[in-house]
Amino acid sequence: MNEQASEPSSDKISAAASSQAAPVPLRVKVELGARAYDILIGEGLLEQAGALVASISSAKAAAIVVDENTRPLYADKVSAALDAAGIRSAVITVQPGERSKSWRGYGEVCEAILAARIGRDDLVIALGGGVVGDLAGFAAATVRRGVALVQMPTTLLAQVDSSVGGKTGINSAVGKNLIGAFHQPSLVLADTRVLDTLPAREFRAGYAEVLKYALIDRPQFFEWLEANRDEIFAGGSARAEAIAECCRAKAEIVAVDETETGDRALLNLGHTFGHALENVTGYDSSRLVHGEAVAIGCAMAFRFSVALGLADPAHARRVEAHLAEAGLPSRLAHVRGGAGSVETLLAAMAQDKKVRHGTPTFILAHGIGRSFIQRGVESQHLRDFLLSELRSNG
Amino acid sequence: MNEQASEPSSDKISAAASSQAAPVPLRVKVELGARAYDILIGEGLLEQAGALVASISSAKAAAIVVDENTRPLYADKVSAALDAAGIRSAVITVQPGERSKSWRGYGEVCEAILAARIGRDDLVIALGGGVVGDLAGFAAATVRRGVALVQMPTTLLAQVDSSVGGKTGINSAVGKNLIGAFHQPSLVLADTRVLDTLPAREFRAGYAEVLKYALIDRPQFFEWLEANRDEIFAGGSARAEAIAECCRAKAEIVAVDETETGDRALLNLGHTFGHALENVTGYDSSRLVHGEAVAIGCAMAFRFSVALGLADPAHARRVEAHLAEAGLPSRLAHVRGGAGSVETLLAAMAQDKKVRHGTPTFILAHGIGRSFIQRGVESQHLRDFLLSELRSNG
């Protein structure tokens, strides 16, 4: 096993996967030269984690980072699979929720990884949703100045977004995700079976990110989503194909702009408004989760595009209709406990990472699948738009 | 100024430098492709910091990180120079000493950088010794997932070592520098005039790192140091040339092995033993500073090489003699308060970052300027050697 593992090869992934009697997973390659890696999407990948990890790494030990919710569901399964492949593992448990993406949470995970004697040739596994992926990923990026990372996302949102592309980080007192690193995983295992037990609200929230990829530059994918939404929510091959298409979309963008100096910013469609909403609701998941904020943010980006005379109102209405059918919010009025004032929203936006020299960057659209990066929107236009959005709350 | 700054160019550095009536600095280029940068070594560079920074960056703001000792000496000077170049600056002060390289120190610097509204196109300046460079560098690597860094080292040690090569980080509960990132600076300004006011002990400690480069692979540099030691300690052109030669040596190694997967480990000559000594003395600078630990570590690496039958004892004696002439320690007996036991030294070494799969890596030498990487030294040989070193303490 170790000899085989010493020469990582993509071919060995399929060999390892097919040696177990599971369906062959879908595979998306993220083309990043020496840092290229595969995303595998399919049923039962966690049971095969040991062989799959061993096919791309010579690690003798792994730190598995989980939260208290995912630990009882998957930690033993992954640990046993690693054991069978000769990889010792230690399980590191964090509190569920955004609050773990803190200075304290980050420090504790790093110290626990070191205490588990994870060396430079070993690895960190992020087994969970976006919070665990961001937190464990940042720890992996910085423990011993970087150890290998395998993402095993267990939510739809993490499978289509946060586990791919190498963004890791924690929240600062000033704002969300303001501390972090770009640290590409060595492998992503998106086990679609874990989504069967995901709470409905969380699945819907993840679907907002699926929709986002369609809105950015995939009009045909949008039509396919309109036609297949029920089947995606029910599970099965449509679900796996939707996830794979999102991963392809993200992989394409990441491959041309790894550190977001250009087109990668398109992935922030819905996020400038979305992050501001998460900020004003205090990252309180009982009021708003990330995907819901992105859903409202995407709808707002389209309405803002209409308000600026850039897009046809019919496109904004079609986006809203699809969000409503998926059970997702699309308006500030949908935020439990209110979305604050124009001033609090503007203040929250001013702290966005994407602010350059004081000017916020928006992702706007000429229509569905025709988004673009807009720097330097006039602040009065933004103010007027937010006011009209808040007024239409009633 | 800003228009000029929008197109970074090495040629502009000399233009900017020579427009002031200061001597033309020595220049060493670190060849790292898109991340290549210059190290400038010369008198009065801090006064020219504004023009020099503007020639390689379009930053409109800078966070200047200093400690309480360097702040009164240099912060106003650099701030004024930046002002003159149209760059707003905020000064962030940390406690002097290794203890600032802590989770808390790191978090505070990051939050202060964000509070100072440093954007992705702005920069962080590390103005100080190795601690400030490592700490501010790690903050720069991770605030907003990375902002540009300019190193302005104010100690000999930082000018020849820590400011070049991109290693940044803080200490963990488990050991020194176990948390961090590779983050190359965009520019290094080594103002040799600041060394005139450096305490003698600190200058000597820095000289240990100068000597290290000679011992690694520069036997002629070693002879030159033997002949010019007095002049280097006195200041002037020999000092600047010694610093430049060290930077050339480091730049060569970093260019071929940026993230220490191979030959860069040679730079750790003296450091496996040295870090262990710092660890057992609790990073207490009244007992031992880093450069002194490296001095003893280099001498031990040569004696260990002799003990293993790899080097002629005459080479080890010549290293010890040069250290003694420079006023530097070379033996465990020279550690104030003692160097612990074999067990505490072995335990400290086992936590070194360079440990891979449990086997410590040593840099040994066949002679002066003929060092090599030795993995998998037998633990009994190491134990015997440490015992003989401790016994020869009396």
Characterization of this structure:
The structure is a homodimer of 394-residue chains. Chain A is of the alpha/beta class and 394 residues long. Chain A has helices at residues 2-5, 10-19, 49-54, 71-84, 103-115, 130-142, 156-162, 200-217, 219-234, 237-256, 271-280, 290-307, 313-325, 342-350, 379-391, and strands spanning 26-30, 37-42, 61-67, 88-94, 123-128, 148-153, 167-170, 179-182, 187-191, 361-365, 371-375. In chain A, a hairpin with a 5-residue loop joins strand 10 (361-365) and strand 11 (371-375). In chain A, helix 5 packs across helix 6 (130-142), helix 7 packs parallel to helix 10 and helix 8 (200-217) packs parallel to helix 12 (290-307). Chain A is globular and about 60 Å long. At the A-B interface, helix 5, helix 6 and strand 8 of A face helix 5, helix 6 and strand 8 of B.
The interface involving the most residues is between: A-B, 35 and 35 residues
Low-confidence stretches of chain A: 1-20
Helix count of chain A equals: 15
**Helix-strand pattern of chain A, N to C?**
HHEEHEHEHEHEHEEEHHHHHHHEEH
In oligomeric terms, what are we looking at? Answer: homodimer
Straight-line N-to-C gap of chain A: 63 Å
What share of the residues of chain A lie within helices? 40-55%
Biggest sheet character of chain A? 7 strands, mixed
Query: At the fourth CATH level, what is the homologous superfamily of the largest domain in chain A?
Result: Dehydroquinate synthase-like - alpha domain
The first-level CATH class of the largest domain in chain A is given as Mainly Alpha
Structural class of chain A: alpha/beta
- Shape annotation of chain A: globular
Which CATH architecture of the largest domain in chain A would you pick? Up-down Bundle
How many distinct beta strands of chain A?
11
Radius of gyration of chain A: 20 Å
Please state how the strands of the largest beta sheet of chain A are arranged side by side: 1-2-9-6-5-3-4
CATH fold category name of the largest domain in chain A: Dehydroquinate synthase-like, alpha domain
